[in-house]
Design goal:
Oligomer: single chain
Low-confidence stretches: none
Strand content: under 5%
Radius of gyration: 15 Å
Shape: globular
Order of helices and strands: EHHHHEH
Length: about 130
């Protein structure tokens, strides 16, 4: 079983701080653990490995504020495309994170940032075949 969880952060400790929050909290407070549990009750106890991918979406002011709509727009576009890419990977991976579309998915800045990350994933997973 392969699971993919996509998240975002602008926290001071970056991706490591975000994952520390996910892995160190009780299931009720960790969106990763909660989504994993919703997907498969016993997945956490059966998990042998966890691979974390991190991608920089740039340093535009829109991505570096506490207001999250631009980052959520990027995340939405990425998740939509990754569902297709990861379903074809070996082993196939399932995206368990959720994010809603918003008005920013139409902005060129958001689309460009998302497409850059999608291309990174496409190259990575095509090379793994």
């Amino acid at each position: 079983m392969g699971i993919a969880y996509i998240g975002m952060t602008v926290g001071r400790n970056g991706i490591f701080g975000r994952w520390g929050d996910h892995l160190g909290r009780a299931i009720e407070k960790s969106s990763f653990q909660r989504r994993l549990h919703e997907f498969d009750h016993s997945a956490w106890s059966r998990m042998e490995d966890l691979v974390i991918f991190w991608a920089d979406i740039g340093d535009s002011d829109e991505f570096l504020t506490l207001e999250t709509s631009h980052r959520e727009g990027v995340e939405y576009i990425i998740q939509r495309q990754l569902r297709v890419i990861l379903a074809r990977s070996k082993p196939p991976l399932t995206v368990i994170s959720k994010v809603r579309s918003n008005r920013t998915v139409q902005f060129p800045l958001v689309q460009a940032a998302a497409n850059q990350v999608i291309e990174y994933f496409r190259i990575h997973f095509d090379a793994a075949d």
